[in-house]
Amino acid sequence: MNYRAYIFALFLRILLIVSVILVLVYTIYNHYSGYSVLATLAILYLFINTYTFVKRRFVAMDDFFEAVKYRDFSRWFPEDRGPKDIRFLYTGFNEINRTIKEINSQNQAQFVYLQKILEMVDIGIIAYNLESGDVLWSNDSFGDILDIPSFKNVRFVENRKPELFNTIFETYHREPNSISIALQNESIKILISDTVFQVGEDAFKLIVIQDIDTTLNKNESESWKKLLSVMTHEIMNSIAPISSLADTLQRNVQMAIETPEASHLELEDLNSGIKTIKNRSEGLLKFAKTYRSLSKVTNLNLQRTKVSELFNNIQRLMQPSIQAKNIDISFNITSPKLELDIDTHLIEQVLINLILNAVDACKHIANAEIKVVAVQNPNRDIVLKVFDNGSGIPQDILENIFVPFFTSKATGSGIGLSLCKQIMLLHKGRIIVKSVEGEGSVFSLVF
């Protein structure tokens, strides 16, 4: 029975009660005592029936509200027995309970999902009540980073490590802040930030910490692995032929010493072999000097420079030799007012390096073209881009092109792009590459 049907049934009962009361008044006025008794009984029956009709609905609703009060959404109300209006009401209650259980189930699944994600990350997270100190939630990484066992109240840390408690829990870090903390046998550097949030009348503090040392060591280790891999490859390429040639020459000299009559030592061959060893040794020395040059660029001589002047200098320097190779080169600036705070000589070196790489990529390309462009992004970043329609960079080596000494060229040192990246990092900028093999490349210097 829906709401309108219930109102209609209640209105009908009230109408009947009013009608019977009028009949009772009429019978009393006309002294029909027999009819008066029947009318009185009818009124009494209608009052009881209406009271029962209204009461059972309120009892059912009160029963449901009591279940809601105690969050008992597992209760099932019988839909197949009792008056029709109550059965309809029970159907509605069951539908509400079913919906709430589904919502709770979804929320629980989302909470478990989020909890598992936060437990898997290597960033320490804790939320606790500011007044009581009770921990609302914490992941294992938080205890692992601080080298403390699991706890339910932050006072546990205060009792065991007061200095650590003051640094982590009492001090506020509204912005991410790098700090050093002393543990049992070492001092580690962590990145910490926190925020306070309100839930009802309770205030909670959320703290996030990250072990910087471990992250840096991991990244440094990966960088060293790449660097050593490339260096080993380059050194072995030089040492292997030197060792082989030296071994051959030694055998020839040894045979000439032991059996001078049977063997004839060609001095020209000996001289040629020694010369080869000398050249390869010089190559190794050059390789070592190139490695040392990586650490030379450490300071900047910053000055306000117009991008147009920067481009004009490079254009005068490089355009004649590039066009002599039948490669078209152009320089474009979206706004002549663009200016940068840069070390002009170093950025010129970066652009020259990128342009020479583009020339190499366009060697065997018809209608070869190089474009050097300066634009300003909507976020105010200034970007210098070097486009070419050359051979492109294979995807399998694209991620290694900035690794020191890595090169795909027969005569390359593998140092140019590494220096470019280091110079951009010193300028607090970035160098980005996008390339499609067979279509060309674009290197972007983002300031």
UniProtKB/TrEMBL annotation:
Gene Ontology biological process terms from the UniProt entry: phosphorelay signal transduction system
Segments crossing the lipid bilayer: 7-29, 35-54
InterPro entries cross-referenced by the UniProt entry: HATPase_C_sf (IPR036890), HATPase_dom (IPR003594), His_kinase_dom (IPR005467), Sensor_HK_Regulatory (IPR050736), Sig_transdc_His_kin-like_C (IPR004358)
Gene Ontology MF term list: protein histidine kinase activity
EC assignment: 2.7.13.3
Source species, domain of life: Bacteria
Keywords noted in UniProt: Kinase, Membrane, Transferase, Transmembrane, Transmembrane helix, Two-component regulatory system
Domain (Histidine kinase): residue spans on this chain: 230-447
Catalysed reaction equations from the record: ATP + protein L-histidine = ADP + protein N-phospho-L-histidine
Enzyme class per UniProt: transferase
Designated name of the protein: histidine kinase
Organism: Formosa algae
